[in-house]
Specification:
The complex is a heterodimer of chains A (424) and B (132). Chain A has a domain of 40 residues. Chain A is globular. Chain A contains one helix and 33 strands. In chain A, the strands form eight sheets. A five-stranded antiparallel β-sheet of chain A has the order 1-16-15-14-13, with no helix packed on it. By secondary structure, chain A is mainly beta. In chain A, 4% of the residues lie in helices and 45% in strands. By secondary structure, chain B is mainly α. Classes of the chains: A mainly beta (424), B mainly alpha (132). At the A-B interface, loops of A face α2 of B.
Chain lengths: 424, 132
Amino acid sequence: MHPIPAESDRAASHGLPTTGHAGKGPGVPAGCRRAFAVFAMLAALALAGCAAPLPLRGTGDLGVVIEREDGRLQVVDTSAHATLGTVDGLGDLSHASVVYSRDGRYAYVFGRDGGLTKVDLLERRIDRRTLQAGNSIGGAISQDGRVVAAQNYAPGGIKLFDARTLALLADIPSAAGPDGQRSKVVGLTDAPDGRFVASLFDAGEIWLIDARNPRMPQVTRFRGIGRQPYDGLVTPDGRYYVAGLFGEDGVALVDLWHPERGATRILDGYGKGEARLPVYKMPHLRGWAIADGYAFLPAVGRHEVLIVDTRTWREVGRVAVAGQPVFVIARPDARQVWVNFALPDNGKVQVIDTETRRVTATLAPGRAVLHLEFTPRGEEVWISVRDDNRVVVYDTATLARIATLAANAPSGIFFTSRATRIGF
Amino acid sequence: MCVRPRIRIAAVALLGTAAVLAPVGAPAQLTGAGATTTAAGPAPAPARQRELRALLRQDCGACHGMRLTGGLGPPLTAEALYDKPADSMTETILSGRPGTAMPPWRHFMTETEAAWLVARLRNGTIDAPDSR
């Protein structure tokens, strides 16, 4: 492991709006305001029959399925295997991702067009929406649930928002890459102690952002971490940040307990100099599998899943799989790891037994499998099958299909259990 | 800072590199910049056009955005492409760009089809039906 020194920077903080956490309300509880607004609207429009109160319920078994071509999401009930309703008007949802408020009621949806939309799962409507950038790739929510962070491609950088009001709190422009343009930001995640971590694709840096004062975030930069970090994740315990590199065979690692030790490089040259296959789709690291002290990660441009001991961060094995892995995700109990693949193998899903480290099943859910999401305790996995317009639900013990939901070209699936997990 | 082992790998791996790295302009049938029709050959059959459009939105869209407004890869809108040489765009699609994230698509489409895509992208008619 090769240490790469960190250096501290004061973050540039631009364009701070004047509203703060206190929000806009003059002391009227939001619920009352909303209830009154809804009541007034209904009365005004005389929509008889629509005013029945929503049934009281929790959100722990809810989630959303993105229907990206329609700029719409479905709100799904994982207990009932049913779609409860849809919410439209979310803009360009290619590569959309979602984080949840910690009460599990609101989904923050990050769209490609820079749209950040706060969706109320219970009322199934847009609570707030802002167009915050020209081209965006995702986001994260802070440990305390008060700050939503967006990672942007254009203009490159990170923006922090008040999770309640979506008011802008801070704008952190990224550093320029070799072409002089602001870097595209990837791999943004929350981390303990009120921090965020992200990677700069073009500049090849990792940024650790202390957002405890979200109007004055402090950035620690790790430079020279490797070429073209394409995604990153934080381990489930919140200790390590890991950035996968596209421009070279290797992975950069930051110990968030000891950022002063700098970033280190692991798995250098895992391709052993062999030619890599063309990569038709970037692997994703979020949801990256850590099972029984071992990390299972996608090898870029190879039909392999790499296994790394998270105590030494050394490779201990590889699993040959059916294609180039895109998502490599552990069942919550870490007994299995499920993998989907890039073109042309995107009709398959494989299951790896984490004890024997062998593929134990190959499933064919349909044409163009885009995403997988486990129910909170992992008895089921929901799989989006874009070109067959459906979401297929499997029993993870028997591998039997137990339900199918219709959805128009579904992509991401996000359950509210993410609300309570570090790094989601 | 210590020296780290670096293994440089061309993104274009499996294909014959000589052909792949041929200078731009190889598909010389194409007319020059500003051309609005594919001179490289007949337009693909309607069913194949639908497949190519789907590939463009979904699979190219993974990097260029489903609406082609850009992402990890640059925008592929008419505005972005109209003044770039068509033959070099076609070559980029078929062979990719080594050292960047743009992969080669030669296994998924013919040269004629790539040229058709480029022409349609450049004049902003990618979504218009074409029965020729």
